[in-house]
Design a protein that fits this description.
The chain is of the alpha/beta class and about 375 residues long. About 40% of the residues lie in helices and about 20% in strands. It is built from 12 helices and 15 strands. It has an 8-stranded mixed sheet with strand order 3-6-2-1-9-11-12-10, with helices on both faces. It is globular, with a radius of gyration of 23 Å. Bound molecules: adenosine-5'-diphosphate (ADP), aspartic acid and magnesium ion. Adenosine-5'-diphosphate binds next to loops.
Length: about 375
């Protein structure tokens, strides 16, 4: 059993979907196929939500674009006499989406629930359309809604996966259903009350990893628009090249620091069961890609495998000779930020103890500075 995940660009339109179909046809063993929303759709959905919350009259402007984007692959890949069912599915969901946006616009209701419900339409639509396209292009598949497989619970206002119940649901389903191809929407999940939740932006990678873990899959293949994890962001650094082999730990470091090709939480479920991941290019399937597993091997004994980066980071420096040898400074500094719910990305302290430097997101910089100034008002004065 293998798990294959196809990202937004791989399922963006009829042209890329024809590549996906070829890849699926070449598989010889049972597979679970996890799909993202068509590329860019989640952004369009969340853009409309934002406009509705800001009470901007043009909040429904993206609906036409969303409809057009989904109709294109339907019209190009499904015989005309078989299109009506899936087109009415699309229209019904778009009407439902429009009603939800109207309600949000009228009620000005900002909730985490709205966010997940609106964002979920991307994967709900893509998975239904892709299943229909597969059916008319020689790949029989069974559809399973991820909200019936992946359960989340709320922890500090974040939805995290309830591991035990998720594993139970996945193993129970696959014990009963041994189809050769099972198609599952990525990203979406539900909580114990049955409400739709999500696994966070880029979360389809994580959905696939959770399923691979529960089924103890032989491998997880992440199919995307580049030929593996590169030595640097390939769209910024033109000399970057794919890395053949990485350990879980190395991949985790690179992905946490901005190599978007893998969503950071994805690796944990795989490490747990020692399941290898291969990152492959949907548009160049013959390329080797990157293999990530538990073995730390290195071509030519190199130590540094790649460089990744994140944008919009601010550095805050607290310094002064009054800090040297005095206990409790760091505690108060971190407390000042945690009281304001500001996340710290990075910390350094020189052994001279003369300064502590913190990295926070740029948008948090001003409130972080104010909180620190207040906490250390006495020392600063
Ligand atoms: P998908 O839609 O398939 O999930 P993503 O856009 O989430 O794809 O991730 C793939 C993108 O990650 C690539 O197109 C590339 O621009 C970006 N990326 C950033 N850093 C790296 C890196 N080090 N190696 C590979 N891709 C990277
Ligand atoms: N569609 C979701 C997003 O854009 C999840 C994913 O693509 O992995 O964040
Ligand atoms: Mg992604």
């Amino acid at each position: 059993m293998k798990v294959l995940k196809f990202g937004g660009t791989s399922v963006a339109n009829s042209k890329s979907l024809s590549k996906v179909i070829e890849i699926l046809k070449s598989q010889s063993e049972p597979i679970v196929v996890v799909v993202s929303a068509l590329g860019g759709i989640t952004d369009l959905l969340l853009g409309m939500l934002q406009l509705a919350l800001e009470r901007k009259e043009n909040f429904k402007d993206n609906l036409d674009e969303i409809e057009k984007r989904h109709l294109e692959p339907i019209k190009a890949c499904i015989p005309i006499q078989n299109q009506s069912g899936i087109i009415s599915f699309l229209k019904n969901h778009l009407n439902e989406l429009e009603s939800r946006l109207d309600a949000i616009f009228l009620l000005e209701e900002v909730t985490v629930k709205n966010n997940a419900t609106i964002a979920s339409y991307g994967e709900i639509l893509s998975s239904a359309i892709i299943q229909e396209i597969l059916k008319y292009n020689g790949v029989e598949s069974v559809f399973k809604d991820a909200r019936e497989l992946i359960q989340t619970e709320s922890n500090n206002n974040r939805d995290i996966v309830s591991e035990a119940s998720t594993i139970k649901k996945i193993t129970a389903y696959f014990k009963e259903n041994q189809s050769k191809v099972v198609l599952v929407p990525g990203f979406i999940s539900s909580n114990a009350s049955g409400e739709t939740t999500t696994l966070g932006r880029g979360g389809s990678d994580y959905s696939a990893a959770i399923i691979a873990n529960a089924l103890e899959a032989k491998v997880l293949e992440i199919w995307t628009d580049v030929s593996g994890m590169y030595t640097a962001h390939p769209k910024i650094v033109t000399q970057a090249k794919p890395i053949k082999k990485l350990s879980y730990y190395e991949a985790m470091e690179l992905s946490h620091f901005g190599a978007k090709v893998i969503y950071p939480p994805t690796l944990q479920p795989l490490v747990e069961k020692n399941i290898p991941i291969v990152i492959k290019n949907t548009f160049a399937p013959e390329d080797e890609g990157t293999l990530i597993d538990g073995n730390a091997s290195s071509e030519n004994g190199e130590i540094v495998k790649g460089i990744s980066h994140i944008d919009n980071v601010a550095l805050l420096n607290l310094e002064g000779s009054g800090m040297i040898g005095i206990t409790g400074f760091s505690k108060r500094l971190f407390e000042a930020l945690s009281d304001e719910d500001i996340n710290i990305i990075m910390i350094t302290q020189a052994s001279s103890e003369h300064s502590i430097c913190l990295g926070v997101r740029s948008e948090d910089a001003l409130s972080a500075k104010e909180a620190i100034d207040q906490k250390f008002e006495f020392e600063i004065s």
